[in-house]
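ok so heres the complex, three chains, lmk if somethin looks off
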Amino acid sequence: MERIILHIDVNNAFLSWTAIDLLRHGYDIDIRTIPAVIGGDRKQRKGIVVARSIPAKKYGISTPEPLYFALKKYPKLKVFPPNYKWYQYMSNKLFSYLKTFTNEIEIFSIDECFLDYTSIKHIYGNELEFAKMISNYIKTNFKFTVNIGIANNKLCAKMASDFSKPDKIHTLYSYEVKDKMWPLQVDDLLWIGKRTSEKLHQLKIDTIGDLANADVYFLSKYFKNNAVRMIESANGIDDSKVDFSERIEKGISNEITVVEDLIEKKDIYNALLTVIDKTTLRLRKQNRYANTVAVILKDNKFRRISHQRKLKNPTNNTEEIKVIVKELLDEMGEVEPIRLVGVRLDNLTDNVYRQFSMFDDNNEIEKKDKLQKVLDDIKEKYGEDLRINKN
DNA sequence: TCTGGGGTCCTAGGACCC
DNA sequence: TCTGGGGTCCTAGGACCC
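and the predicted structre for the whole thing:
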């Protein structure tokens, strides 16, 4: 039996959700109807456009582009800060509603998901009618709009939801791929990013149809194992399942752009300390442990440098990770002025299987973990910004 | 005053083992 | 004065998504 997959995508999610937030607080303009963007603080060097309204798009404003450029294109542009907690709330509201129909929903990001309609079609009937129904419900009750793509697999459903916006429902059934997808630029195909599309254009592969009919041996010379996947995608072939199991992150990371470039190693390390606190706390909240620790830096020329280390024993202890981060940072030697510092904890496991060596003091390790728990509890109680004075 | 932050997956090359 | 081949693990960096 052929599968029926829906891809549901919130139109201009962050901007729409901020618009709703503003309206409910008495703001008299719906920022979806004027040239407006959601953007970071330029003084904090976070000045990029995260989302833009459709009127802003008409001035050529795109995402993610520096706010500086966006304002040059349209100086009267309205800029609003992001509110991620609110976005998460709206996101949950949407997904909870969709889960009243089926649990076969894969949350792809904060504002989009796949829904496997195959097994509920006999209950709710024709998928197009169903899509219209949920689309209307969301618009009426949640005050934002979505695009819905309907297809026989995830890839085509996602491609379809992207066709034209906002508040639209598109189908891209397998038999429609040739007519609806092949004429599009190869750049529009999922998983074909900037680098790959540049290479493809050099090879005179410009449309998705060109790629669909390209010779796999020819393409393998340039894209290795990817070539097969790319050609399959262009033909609208995708066997991947809607994965509705609870998503467990493989690794967690935090990074922060610093206000002024850091030159001294000790300043870089100090900036990393705050990041480590944040990341390790997240890890402990999940009751998990990291087997790999990585330090990530971005220099003033926007080059990323990273060093990582696989650990002998998994840990989620802040102090232990600080020591490793320090060592990794020292390993990196001389670096250019640094604008971003980050930490990534990888290869996460649920249980600590500590291989205590006979030289380790088990009591010491247990004490450390207990102290960590006490500190976490204090932070929980008094807020994360509390800094404990060490004497 | 130009360029965020959080993820996943892949690859090339080196180390090391048999 | 020659020097394999396969496999696994690890690291650094790149590409992609939102």
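quick notes: Chain A has 15 helices and twelve strands. thats all i got rn
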